[in-house]
Amino acid sequence: MTGNRPNPIRETDDAVRAEARALLEEARFGALGVLDPESGAPMVTRVAVGTTPGGAPLTLISALSQHTAALGRSAACSLLVGEPKPTGDPLTHPRLTLQCDARFVARGTPEHDRLRGRWLASHPKSKLYVDFADFSFVVLEPRGGFLNGGFGKAYLLTAEDLLPPA
User: Which residue from 83, 46, 41 is spatially nearest to 61, judged by alpha carbons?
Assistant: First the structure.
């Protein structure tokens, strides 16, 4: 209990882990939260999302964007995935919030080449700009997360919960 309120967090089990991983794997875009490098205020933007072969979130961003500058200053960020279904109350549909550390992947490395191939398989339209010099892959390495599975279904997740078993 917190004060007079019951604790809304339920126990995390394998079904919850699987639901969180599925939300992440199915996501093609999400909301990326960063700290604005000028003001330090929170800022959220929509980004394309994929996953690394190991299951970590991945995005492709331009150096011209404000969120790239923010991630260059502070790797700490947050990612929200999970879209409402066409019908019903949007607050009853599951969504996953991750706390992450951003890691830029250098061009010309084997990791970049693997990520590029995987990215293009799930985001074929990005072939138009994936090789532009100002674009970089950024792995969002999870520190933990929160799954809101709908009303009364709240779960805390560790980094290990979010990545597929080895």
Answer: 46
